[in-house]
Amino acid sequence: MRLTFFISLLAASCFSITAQDSQLTLDRIFKTNDFRNERFGPARWTEGGKAYTTLEPSALYPGKIDIIEYVAKSGIRSVLVSADLLIPEGKTQPLTLEDYQWSHAKRFLLIYTNSQKVWRDNTRGDYWVLNLSSGQLRQLGVDFQQSSLMFAKFSPDDTRVAYVSSHNIYVENIETGSVITITNDGSERLINGTFDWAYEEEFGIQDGFRWSPDGNQIAYWQLDATEIRDFLMINNTDSIYSYTVPVQYPKVGEDPSSCRIGVVNATGGAVQWIPVPGDSKQNYLPRMMWAPDSRTILIQQIPRKQNTNRIWAYSVADQSIEHIYTDTDEAWVSAIDDWIWLNHGKEFSWISEKSGWKHFYRVKLDGTGDIAVTNGDYDLISIELLDDNNSLLLLITLLNAIFTEQNYPAVGNHKD
To answer: Which single residue of 14, 24, 115, 407 could bond 122 by disulfide (Cβ 3.0 to 4.6 Å)?
Structure first.
């Protein structure tokens, strides 16, 4: 009797396990959301920081999303863009939204979808623009190969979108769809508006162009990888037969790609190459940013030893360049992302370990030096808020192995 009951129980258990296992497929694991954790975002601030938007599942279209806006203070929730607004003409299902951007005046929504991997991340795909007033949904770059657009971003006046496709840069008019070719010499070896494997690996940079604040010009990186040989990686997992994957990879002792930065009118035309001193193969140019007045471009230059970071200021009108600041370390310096304009464009923020501790500085654009905002025997971990208008800086620091939050006057009182 007991043996019969045990055999029956074992058989029932095996049947249950088999039934469950038959439903667990690779496609279900990797191509559905069945086993993914709930996530927040991506979130975007709106209304000058009084509200934010995020993505939430659509009730009408399973597996698709709505864009929801929350009022930060009250928590009031509203559906800003429902999934049915993201259905292309002639289709029955909404786009699968992977990322999104609001235009500066929130008249348009830029949608990123159908992405593909480049090196490490899914940085190329398709972009669509939704006109929030008319409800018109239109795909950008329709004449380009599917899933080939990269780093699309609105112009400051919200009339155009610039993007990269096949290593060239284009500007498209949102209303008319007309496309201006900004560069036409791009190839697998001459890279405009994005980066090669080594730059992405060393400096975590992928997006290789910047609108000027007035929307009249575009500054971009160009890498020449013609002398970089391919390293053949072997893929043993995607097919019964293995195959090689060529990767442009400079081995130890070989030169990396040369790099330069150009400035061009957003309507097209001749490129103004910035004459940064130094060998373009022995020095990296990992960061740049426009000044608020669109007259100057700051460039970070780091040698291959990566122990010095020189800041150059380039005057677009004069086509002249000036060295204004140097940060050094016997061991290592990093490219700085936390450089933000302060004091109405007369200074910019900087992070340095030159004192032996990681601290926050204000660097003067005129090249007369810097001012330490924080100091002491502790490291700055991150900048959480920098409010130049109210002279407020919120930092997270590591002091005696205890995480603390500290407020500092970021720029002090000033009159202009």
So the answer is: 115
Where are the extended beta strands (E) located within 175-226?
179-181, 190-192, 209-211, 217-224
Domain map (residue ranges) of the chain: 184-332, 338-416
Report the distance separating Cα 280 and Cα 274, nearest Å: 12
The two structure tokens encoding residue 259: 């790099």
Q: Which two tokens stand for residue 13?
A: 């258990």
* List of E strands, 58-193: 65-71, 77-81, 99-102, 108-118, 121-131, 137-139, 149-154, 160-165, 168-173, 179-181, 190-192
- Cα separation, 299 vs 140, in Å, equals 31
d(CA 96, CA 86) in angstroms, rounded, equals 9
Question: At residue 106, what is the residue type?
Answer: K
- Cα–Cα distance list, 416 to 292, 343, 344, 346 (Å): 15, 9, 8, 10
H or E, element range at 7? helix 2-23
Longest dimension (CA), the chain: 98
Q: How many angstroms separate the CA atoms of 137 and 338, rounded?
A: 35
User: In 3-state terms, what secondary structure has residue 357?
Assistant: coil
User: Above 70 in pLDDT, residue 397?
Assistant: no
Q: Are strands 108-118 and 137-139 parallel, antiparallel or unpaired?
A: unpaired
Query: For residues 257 and 252, what is the distance between their CA atoms, to the nearest angstrom?
Result: 13
Q: What is the pLDDT of residues 247-274, one digit of tens each?
A: 889 998 899 999 999 999 999 999 999 9
pLDDT digits (tens, 9 = 90+) for 268-308: 999 999 999 999 999 999 999 999 999 999 999 999 999 99
The helix/strand/coil state of 230 is: strand
d(C-alpha 269, C-alpha 326), whole Å: 34
Contact 266, 162 (CB under 8 A): yes
Are 210 and 288 contacting, i.e. CB atoms less than 8 angstroms apart? yes
Superfamily name and number for 184-332: Dipeptidylpeptidase IV, N-terminal domain (2.140.10.30)
Paired tokens of 59: 């009730």
Q: Which SS3 state, helix, strand or coil, does residue 63 take?
A: coil
Residue 35 has pLDDT above 70, yes or no: yes
